[in-house]
Amino acid sequence: DRDKDLAVLRSNRSLARLQMGQLAESRSDAQSATELDGTYVKGHWRLGQACTALGEHQDALDAFTAALALDGSNKALKKEVDKARAKVEQEKLLVMEGKFDGVVAENGAGKTTKAVAAPKPVKSAPAPPKKSASSGSDVVKTAADGDSEFSKSDHVRGYKVVGGKKTSYFHHEQTEEEKRLIGDIRPKQLSGDAAAAAATTSGDQDTSAWNKAGTWEEKDVTSWAVDTLTSSLVGTSHSVSSSAAEIGGGTAKVTKATKLDLHGGGHASVAAVRGKKRYIYEFGIRLDWELEDCSNGEDYRGTMTLPDVDGTVEAGDEYDLSEFTVEGNVGNKVRMALNKHVRDGGLRAEVHKALDGWVELFKATY
Q1: How deeply is 211 buried, as exposed, middle or buried, from its count of CB atoms within 10 A (0-12, 13-18, 19+)?
Q2: Is the pTM of this model over 0.85?
Q3: CATH, domain 217-365, list 3.40.50.720, 3.15.10.20, 3.30.300.20, 3.90.78.10
């Protein structure tokens, strides 16, 4: 219904705002998603992520716990609950050690957080005693060079004379011993073999040539993902046994994949950081299906919608189904048979396998 669709929309917008650094807005959207649909696992998950970014670890723990209560077999959620609980325990220890003052302050999202005690002020070092200048003369003699003269203002500014030239007070001339210890530190050009060896050992093949430090680098592959997802899903089929009640045998298959940007969340990218790859993708997909060659002489068509095809679903797990439609007027017994062989199993199971295969293709290609 409308509230469930709005919950998915707010959840996706919460993720986008979190990635843009709009933490308070991300938290507000996630909170709205949980209020619109309290059974939507992803809404509670986004709320936990936003609270974690804001430092509200107790609220994050509550949100992740609520999500895990709805999806107890989700391994990723269990990890988030453990991390949030560790953060909460760490805060308690800091309070006990006096490193956390326990003062509660209100942030922009209307929630309360604990503020860290302000650091103790650092005592400033006493000012060095001022050097007195001779009041009877506008010229000051230096101890290093009795014949060099400069004005009183130069002396106050910290100038001194070295080798007959006025320079900074902090100027330092290296002694011969210091020069010997330092040696020749000028840059040296590498020979041909050494330069080639340095070029082959530095950097990473998954990052750009300029990115020698291996910092975060992301490549957008949305266009490739849309094309390969479509080709992987269209044609996926399941043979229905001839003994199936009401409809008899037949072949159920996916005929079309549309709206891969459903809810505005369609994107895919590959990120590389310090030699490790991260595969990021999130799609909402609407599939057109048909069941033909049935023993009863009828053909059936309709749609099914998978709103959250993303990296939080592990291989072998099921993807959420938000909408399932059947064209025309069919009897209750026929609808029950279609639910069994298309919506809840059969064709839907084959679609899940096709999505798992696409994820493997994604990782093998990039």
Answers
A1: middle
A2: no
A3: 3.15.10.20
